[in-house]
Design brief:
Interacts with TamB to form the translocation and assembly module (TAM). It is found in: Cell outer membrane. By secondary structure, the chain is mainly beta. Among the domains are: 72 residues, Ubiquitin-like (UB roll) (Roll), CATH 3.10.20; 81 residues, Ubiquitin-like (UB roll) (Roll); 235 residues, membrane protein fhac: a member of the omp85/tpsb transporter family (Porin, Beta Barrel), CATH 2.40.160.50. Strand 3 and strand 4 form a beta hairpin. The two termini are 55 Å apart.
């Protein structure tokens, strides 16, 4: 006979003075014989909270039997035979319950449905079809209760605020092991979105209305209120957002009540629509329109942020950013950042002008200054870029841009000052779950750029760049990271191509085992020239060791080159440790370059997620 046991924490025994013991509290440790599976588990769960203090033996045994019967009835056993025994004594805490469950009650009649406007609603038809109740099935109370909850919640989510159950009863005939279930909802009319009122916004109302996922007269959906709340948050224009439905007169008799909390997404089961119907009758309301209030608090005009970090590629680094999330009632924004490290100092800025759909369409004016002194590269660069940005429903972002760059550089034995004017187009998509340490995600980017002296540029080239990265997990303890990237440049004036547009490989984000941007074609003196093309790839496996600590193994390969296909790919491999900190993963790697005996091992350290 299979036995199911459940352990509880032993409660402290309480004593009083003068050696008189008046009571004790002991949680029961129950063993069930004669029955297994969910029904036996339910018996153990029902007995766990039983309080044995100040209770007689007869009362305790009676309570155990009564709780056991209730637990069994929930699974359709209405005529069980129950025997109890106490191997170590009545109050020792152990009880053995021998159960002959008897015949199981089955559903012989089922009346389940929705009447009224919701009867033709596809969402209700789908919900009814998915409810696990059929004539002939064993009776389970939890499935009946779940059906009630599902229909109630769906009514609130979809705007049937007058809904109630015309029938909700369960008739059980233990003598014939049969049950008749009745659950019929009367939905009443479906409410629709009414007038939409904005308050507190510093942004012109027309822009806010264009972001609405619904319009006046659309059928009510609580999820669309949550979606609009999220859209407003993504603009960064506001520090306080409340989107909520409203019913009643100017006193808002139900605005703060349970009904409308449920209607906006917090949806406990609905037992009846009588409450709302009564309010409507009291105030003479016949309309089924639901006005919506949108209360907003503007975000701070200025936001400042500083960051300090370290990476093997660049050493210590400091970043300071200054953001103005809104400059005017059209929602224009401005951001500037200053980045300082040993090899690179950079100042960047971006002015964003939202269009009709602020989250998806915009013009962007970017500008920057950059100084670089790394290996055989010295460069001073200034740039200005004007871009038109589109974000599509499939998460792809397209940018069409025109960039102007002036760069004064020395690359190995080459010295030039060039002015480049070149248009380009790019497509990017980034998808992640748990952005701090993604368990699933991917990122793709493809960019095409062209330059020609015909419009005043100092160099002629056609340049393409692509990157793709994936993160996948197997179970909860195995994580895989893959990456492939590359680029190609077609040009007959390579000496005019500045370092910012040449290709280099090596480093934390490229080929580990080699120093930052140390892989490229060289001149006769062994100085780096940069390449016209590049190809890199990486495969990494991570395994959780304990808690937030993970181990990693990896192999990277790649190179920068001038021919259309590399003559040699540099390869490095190694092991690493990942610690998931509150600010993102801390990554420490030790890598071996297979073809560099002088630099047999290299340490790589970085903070932050892969993308």
């Amino acid at each position: 006979m299979r036995t199911l046991r459940h352990s509880a924490v032993q409660r402290l025994l309480c004593g009083v003075a003068l050696s008189v013991v008046t009571s004790s509290a002991m949680a029961l440790e129950a063993s069930v014989e004669g029955l297994d599976g969910p029904a036996a588990t339910n018996v153990v769960n029902f007995l766990e909270p039983l309080d044995t203090r100040n209770i007689s033996e007869a009362r305790l045994d009676s309570d155990i039997r009564e709780r056991t019967q209730r637990a069994l009835r929930a699974f359709g056993y209405y005529s069980p035979q129950i025997e109890t025994s106490y191997p170590d004594g009545m109050f020792a805490g152990d009880v053995v319950i021998a159960i002959d469950p008897g015949p199981r009650t089955h559903i012989t009649q089922l009346d389940l449905g929705v009447d009224g406007a919701a009867g033709d609603d596809p969402a209700f038809r789908k919900a009814l079809a998915s409810i696990p109740l059929e004539e002939g099935d064993p009776l389970r109370h939890d499935r009946y209760d779940s059906a009630k909850t599902r229909l109630s919640t769906l009514a609130l989510e979809r705007g049937y605020f007058d809904a109630g159950f015309a029938q909700q009863r369960m008739e059980v005939r233990p003598w014939e092991a049969s049950a008749r279930l009745f659950l019929r909802m009367r939905s009443g009319p479906r409410y629709r979105f009414g007038d939409i009122r904005f308050a507190g916004s510093q942004i012109e109302e027309a822009r806010l209305r264009r972001m609405l996922p619904f319009t006046k007269g659309d059928p009510y959906l609580a999820g669309q209120l949550a979606e609009y709340n999220q859209r407003l948050g993504q603009t960064n224009w506001f520090r306080g957002i409340a989107v909520r439905p409203r019913i009643g007169d100017e006193r808002n008799v139900t605005r703060g009540g349970q009904w409308w909390q449920e209607a906006t997404g917090r949806t406990p089961p609905l037992s009846s629509g009588a409450g709302l119907a009564a309010v409507r009758r009291l105030h003479g309301l016949q309309s089924t329109d639901v006005p919506v209030d949108v209360d907003l608090v503007p975000a701070d005009r200025h936001k400042f942020e500083t960051g300090i970090g370290y990476a093997t590629d660049v050493g210590p680094r400091v970043q300071f950013s200054w953001e103005m999330p809104w400059l005017n009632d059209r929602g224009h924004s401005l951001s500037n950042s200053l980045y300082l490290s040993g090899p690179e100092q950079r100042f960047d800025g971006e002015y964003v002008m939202p269009l009709a759909n602020p989250l998806r369409d915009s013009y962007r004016l970017s500008y920057g200054l950059r100084s670089l002194d790394n290996e055989d590269t010295q460069s001073l660069e200034s740039s200005v870029e004007l871009a038109r940005r589109w974000e599509f429903d499939n998460d792809w972002v397209q940018e069409l841009y025109f960039r102007t760059t002036y760069e004064d550089f020395t690359q190995a034995d080459q010295d030039e000052q060039v002015l480049l004017l070149y248009p380009g187009i790019s497509w990017t998509r980034t998808r992640t779950r748990q952005p701090n340490f993604p368990r699933w995600g991917d990122r793709q980017r493809l960019a095409l750029e062209v330059s020609d002296p015909a419009w005043g540029s100092d160099a002629r080239f056609l340049r393409a760049r692509f990157d793709s990265q994936w993160i996948r997990t197997l179970g909860s303890d195995n994580r895989f990271v893959g990456r492939i990237g590359g680029g190609a440049t077609a040009t007959d004036t390579f000496d005019k191509i500045p370092p910012s547009l040449r290709f280099f490989a090596g480093g934390d984000q490229s080929v580990r085992g080699y120093s930052y941007e140390s892989l490229s074609p060289e001149n006769d003196d062994g100085e780096l020239l940069g390449g016209q093309h590049m190809l890199t790839a990486s495969a990494e496996y991570q395994r959780r060791v304990t808690g937030n600590w993970w181990g990693a193994t990896f192999v990277d390969t790649g190179n920068a080159f001038n021919a259309w296909w590399p003559e040699e790919l540099k390869t490095g491999a190694g092991v690493g440790v990942r610690w998931i900190s509150p600010v993102g993963p801390v990554r420490f790697d030790i890598a071996h370059p297979f073809d560099n005996e002088e630099d047999a091992w290299r340490l790589h350290f970085a903070i932050g997620p892969e993308f």
